[in-house]
Amino acid sequence: MMGDRILPGEGGQIRALFDRIAPVYDQLNDWLSLGQHRIWKRMAMKWSNPQPGDTGLDLCCGSGDLALLLAREIGATGRVVGVDFAPAQLAVASQRAAVSFPPLAPITWMEADVLNLPFEDKQFDCATMGYGLRNVVDIPRCLQELHRVLKPGGKAAILDLHRPTNLQMRQFQQWYLDNIVVPVAARFGLKEEYAYLTPSLEQFPTGREQVKLAQQAGFAEATHYPLSGGLIGVLAIAKN
Which is it for the CA torsion 50, 235, 136, 36, positive or negative? Predict the structure, then answer.
């Protein structure tokens, strides 16, 4: 649930942090979300509307959950590209894909910057992004790049943690972060990495603000769906 992106002025350091997380990333996400993150990812994948034979893109792919979900929907006649900047995460994703059950679309794992995607315009039918937008340096630029590489009619779904608007849910979230998430991560020597969740949430645009940013980036349709009492949200967007 961390997200996998670069922070201002800390590129090499943050990349190293996420490389260290890679071996236990999936296990921690299962524990800390009580397994719910897998349900949220399936919902996000469905909102991106992958179809058999499509070309799909998973940004900030981490250990590959969403890319694998896309590949299962798209099937052997299509293809998927998973993009991340942390090579250790990409290595885990590649290993997981190698033992996944067919039929799967072929998946290419690529180390790249989501603010400067190495693709021509209008390359992808659908796209996903899980726990990455919250940590990019330039959210408008990221959305513009996503808009650029999607084909006309292409859809994308962006899943992330959010600060709930409800005060009680917000208080619960902070209690859970302080008393469950960070202490559990600390047992794996990852206190610093997971302590970052609180400041990243404080700085993250609200769902309504994300809709405006998506519209400014050129998306014709943009809807934000809060999940789990607003603790999680999916920004569903479509290009004309």
Answer: negative
- Domains of the chain (ranges plus CATH)? 11-238 (3.40.50.150)
Quick check: 67 and 93 in contact, CB under 8 A? yes
Strands (E), 112-209: 124-130, 150-161
Q: CA quadruple 218, 222, 147, 214: dihedral positive or negative?
A: positive
How many Å apart are CA 84 and CA 63, to the nearest integer?
A: 9
Residue indicated by tokens 């039929």: 103
Of 21, 82, 36, 94, which Cα lies nearest the Cα of 55? 82
CB 55 within 8 A of CB 125: yes
**C-alpha 42 chain-centroid distance:** 12
Give the pLDDT confidence of 42-70 residue by residue, as tens digits: 999 999 999 999 999 999 998 899 999 99
Q: How far apart are CA 218 and CA 237, in angstroms?
A: 10
Query: From start to end of the chain, where are the E strands?
Result: 55-59, 79-84, 107-111, 124-130, 150-161, 221-227, 232-238
Quick count: other Cβ atoms within 10 Å of Cβ 61? Answer: 29
What is the model's pTM? 0.88
Q: What's the pLDDT tens digit per position in 10-38? A: 445 555 555 555 556 666 666 667 678 88
Give the amino acid at 180.
Answer: I
